Amino acid sequence: MQSTEKIAEVRQIIQKAREKGRKIALVPTMGYLHEGHVALVAEAKKAEAMVVMSIFVNPLQFGPNEDYERYPRDLERDARMAEAAGVDLLFHPKAKAMYPEAMLATVQVGVMENVLCGGSRPGHFRGVATVVSKLFHIVQPDLAFFGLKDYQQYRILKKMVMDLNFPIEVIGVPTVREVDGLAKSSRNVYLSPKERAEAVVLYQSLGEAAAAIRDGQKDPRKIEKLIRSRVDETSGRLDYVEVRAASDLTNVEWIDRSVVIAVAVYFSSTRLIDNLVVQA
Ligand code: PAF
Asked: Is 130 helix (H, G, I), strand (E, B) or coil?
C-alpha cells in the first residue's frame, strides 16, 4: 500500500494509474477505522479499481462545541487496517494542506442540508459537501463509496454529484452492525458500559417502527412517537426522530412511498445516529 499526506503526490500516483487504464475508487473516511469502513473497501474492491482511502478529520464539518479536538485518531492502526483490507493508496492530508487559508468557496446542497442532522448541526453538511468536493477534485475517482448509516450524507452527496456534473458514481453501502444491532461508529468508543448496553435502543426501536409500517401503519407521527417512547425508557436524550421520503428527504404526511426513519440520540455528550429505509 502506498501512503502519502501530499496532494501533489496523490495526483501523480492517480495519473500513472490512469495511464495504465485503471479505474479509481475512493473511500473517504475520518479514520479510526472499524468494520464499517472495511465493508466500504470490500465493495470498492469488487469494482476491480485502484482503491484510494482518504483519512481526514475535517474541521469544516464540526460545530464550535462539537468533538473535533477529541475525535478519535490513530493513523498507525488505521494504516495497518487499510492495508489488510486491500487499500492501494492511503491519503492522509494535514488540515493545513486541505485548508491552507480561510475558505470562501464552499458547497451547499439547499434544503436537504437543513433537515434531520442538519437541523441540530448547522453547517455540518456544507462542511461535508465541501471536503468531499475537494477530495473528488484531488483524487478524480470513477466511483465513491459511503456508508448508509449516514443516509442523509449519502443522499446529499448523490444530489451534489448530479447537480454539479461530477463524473462519479456514488455508491451506498449497507450499515455494518454489532451483534446486538448497534451500528458500528467511531464514536461508540465514547460510550460507558451502561450507555453501550442502552444504545441498542436505536436499532431495536427502528426495527419495531419498520414492522409497524409493514403491518399497515401509515401515520408518520405515530411511528415517531413509538421511537420516542422507547428512547425515553433509557438514559438517552432524543435529538430527533423523523420519517421522511427516502428519495429526497422531504416531509411526508402519510406513508405511501419509500421512507427513511432516521433517529439521533445523545448518550451523555455522544450523539449516535441510525436509520432504516422502509418500502411502503
Ligand atoms: O462520513 C464521513 O466519515 C465523513 O463525513 C466524510 C464523508 C469522510 C467527509 O469528511
From this structure: helix
Provide the CATH number for the domain around residue 222: 3.30.1300.10
Active-site residues, by number, are: 37
Whole-structure pTM value: 0.97
Q: Of 27, 245, 275, 261, whose CA–CA distance to 135 is shortest? A: 27
* Beta carbon of 133 within 6 Å of any ligand 1 atom: no
State in Å: Cα 253 to ligand 1 middle: 31
The residue range of the domain holding 241 is 186-275
Shared domain check, 190 and 270: yes
**Amino acid sitting at position 119:** G
Longest Cα separation, the chain? 58
Q: What is the pLDDT of residues 175-228, one digit of tens each?
A: 999 999 999 999 999 999 999 999 999 999 999 999 999 999 999 999 999 999
Which whole number is the average pLDDT over 128-151?
98
- Check pLDDT > 80 for residue 280: no
Question: Does one domain contain both 66 and 168?
Answer: yes
Burial (CB < 10 A; 0-12, 13-18, 19+), residue 185, is: buried
Mutation test residue for ligand 1: of 55, 60, 146, the one with most atoms within 8 Å of CB:
146
Does one domain contain both 33 and 144?
A: yes
Sorting pLDDT into bands at 50, 70 and 90, what band is 232? very high
113 and 44 within one domain: yes
Q: Are 267 and 280 in contact (CB under 8 A)?
A: no
DSSP per residue over 155-211, as a string?
A: HHHHHHHHHTT---EEEEEPPPB-TTSPBP-GGGGG--HHHHHHTTHHHHHHHHHHH
Task: Please indicate, yes or no, if residue 154 is contained in any of the structural domains.
Answer: yes
